[in-house]
Write a structure and sequence with these properties.
By secondary structure, the chain is an alpha/beta fold. It is 41% helix and 15% strand. Helix 6 packs parallel to helix 8 (254-262).
Length: 354
């Protein structure tokens, strides 16, 4: 993690291979940093390039030339608008950074500069924005075996100090990361107490267990970028909705994949209830067996119970918020925790093959 730093500078002045523009869905010029980037690049040229692309989903990114900028490219990244924190904002913001870095890597960039995406007029809380940004960058460097130099450019002292403090808290300055698999929680089932790993968002402890965690794997010769994509794709195929299945494969936006899958045509609840865990186990085995670092992290959880925590998810999760202590008592759960139990099954299979 030595390739991540924070500087106080105008992002348009940086000599990185790419700079990131905190864009809107329609890629139109705005005020603030966005407006400064358009002006420095050459308003007409950059606007024309953006107009040709036309639209970018929230949580995703696109690339254009940098024109008059010192940077060769501008990556236009669309972060989420803060709506209170219960509309998948954290997952979307994580995806925004991860996909921006993936685009940079695909275009041969060795360095990229970010603003603090969504923390301005989009209202994302600054501390949480830093935590998600830094976690996503750490995960990308680790999972993609990338040596891209990542620079965060801010001009406000408070943001600069906050970012550096959070880097220290996350252990980034010493090469640490948020993928630590040390088990510290307990779960009570009946009269027995067990070790447990509770998880939800990708930027939180054990976030690599989330279906929204971005990590490529292949099943039947097809590449998937997340478990969410794999599950929603197979859900649509299960009911013969090949059009929606194709749409899911065409995007790396996990929120969009989830939305498409929720509206699968000809859906029958009882059929999906009987198939979803089998499908999940197959995808999870591919995800963890094909990514050695993730496999190690999963195996390092030992025999701990794995529990997804989401108050609005009564199927894949336990139905309780990650910050609610009642998650530590199984008799308080209102959800089935399908993902957690599927992960435990995959962990046993991986261990058996070691």
């Amino acid at each position: 993690m030595k390739n991540i730093s924070i500087v106080k500078a105008d992002i348009t002045s940086l000599e990185t291979d790419a700079i990131v523009n905190a864009a809107n869905n329609h890629l139109s010029a705005g005020g603030g940093v966005c407006g400064a980037i358009f002006s420095a690049a050459g308003y007409a040229e950059l606007k024309d390039a953006c107009d040709k692309i036309g639209f970018c989903n929230t949580g995703s990114a696109v690339i254009t030339p940098g024109f008059a900028l010192k940077a060769k490219y501008v990556i236009h990244a669309v972060g989420p608008i803060w709506r209170g924190g219960d509309q998948d904002e954290e997952k979307q913001l994580y995806s925004t950074y991860y996909k921006s870095l993936r685009i940079a890597k695909e275009n041969g960039c060795k360095s990229v500069a970010f603003p603090l995406v969504s923390a301005g007029i989009y209202g994302y809380p600054q501390k949480a924005a830093w935590e998600t940004a830094l976690t996503a960058c750490c995960d990308f460097q680790k999972n993609e075996d990338s040596d891209i130099k990542i620079v965060f450019s801010v001009i406000i002292d408070e943001l600069f100090d906050m970012g550096n403090d959070i880097m220290k808290q996350l252990g980034i300055s010493s090469g640490g990361n948020t993928g630590d698999t040390e088990v510290t929680d307990k779960l009570t089932i009946g009269e027995q107490v067990y070790d447990a790993c509770f998880f939800h968002n990708v930027n939180e402890p054990f976030g690599f267990l989330s279906n929204w965690y971005l990590s490529d794997f292949i099943v039947d010769g097809m590449k998937f970028t997340s478990m969410e994509q794999f599950i929603m794709y197979n859900k649509c195929l299960c009911f013969g909705d090949s059009i929606s299945a194709k749409d899911i494969l065409s995007t790396d936006d996990v929120a969009q994949q989830k939305s498409i899958g929720r509206n699968a045509r000809n859906y029958i609840d009882n059929v999906w209830a009987g198939r979803r865990q089998l499908i999940a186990v197959r995808g999870l085995y591919a995800k963890f067996s094909q990514n050695p670092e993730l496999k190690k992290q999963l195996l390092d959880t030992g025999d701990a119970f794995l529990v997804e925590c989401a108050v609005n998810d009564k199927i894949w999760a336990c139905g309780i918020d990650l910050r609610d202590d009642s998650r530590k008592r199984a008799d308080k759960w209102s959800g089935q925790n399908i993902l957690g139990f599927a992960l435990m099954e995959v962990r046993e299979s991986l261990r058996a093959h070691e």
